[in-house]
Amino acid sequence: xxxxxxxxxxxxxxxAMGGELLTVADQKGRSLVIELVNLADETVTFTRQxxxxxxxxxxxxxxxxSQDRIRKQAExxxxxxYRLQPSVVIGKRRRDKAGSYYMEIQEITCTVKLANLxxxxxxxxxxxxxxxxxxxxxxxxxxxxxxxxxxxxxVDSSGSFSKDMEPFNTTxxxxxxxxxxxxxxxxxxxxxxxxxxxxxxxxTETAAGNFRMALAAKAGLLxxxxxxxxxxTVSDKLEPVPNSGAY
Length: 247
Hints:
It is built from four helices and 13 strands. It is mainly β and 247 residues long. A five-stranded antiparallel β-sheet has the order 12-11-7-8-13, with no helix packed on it. A four-stranded antiparallel β-sheet has the order 1-2-3-4. Strands 5, 6, 9 and 10 form a four-stranded antiparallel β-sheet that branches. A hairpin with a 2-residue loop joins strand 2 and strand 3. The longest helix is centred in the N-terminal third of the chain and has 13 residues, at 64-76. Keywords: Signal. This is Lipoprotein. It comes from Luteolibacter yonseiensis.
């Protein structure tokens, strides 16, 4: 990648990955809109519109203002250069609980997968936490932490990672009707967060819409959720619910 490429790409408005855009210019004033992938060892890695290919330039080839913007964005965002695509696959198997007509034992399995979309940057020193929640079958606005699990990961450029989490059980009344409902917690969803080795958030993921809205609405909530102990009860806004009376 040479400075001449910058001039050829100056009309670009968005990037292939659709991330945060950054307008920069080279030492001759020729401009380009990029998505920053990585800043490491004074080398800028970036992508451009309609092109998944990653380009590299020494940061010194950008003008001073662009260098400042690149460094600032690298500091303010995760800016590890990780372009990771997560996938959380949940398995649910249930069986009758002996001696109870409606009570079910639900076994939950989970596989976490990460695909590295970067062709040049290896994702090292990743730390993941996934918190699993069950929903109270007597009080559907109350949730319970069924399990909290952690893992470490590293993903080669253009590579993938897969981790089978420890399976766990939960028990609930499958009838879910009337005064005879015995309650319990049926698996509902998860909150997944991934951090880099510097402790910066790389991504967060949940399949539950109410959890997603809660996390987006309250700063610092994710940190609190990841520290909830097994058995903690929370609302649909992921805030503690004391003395909820699970059963």
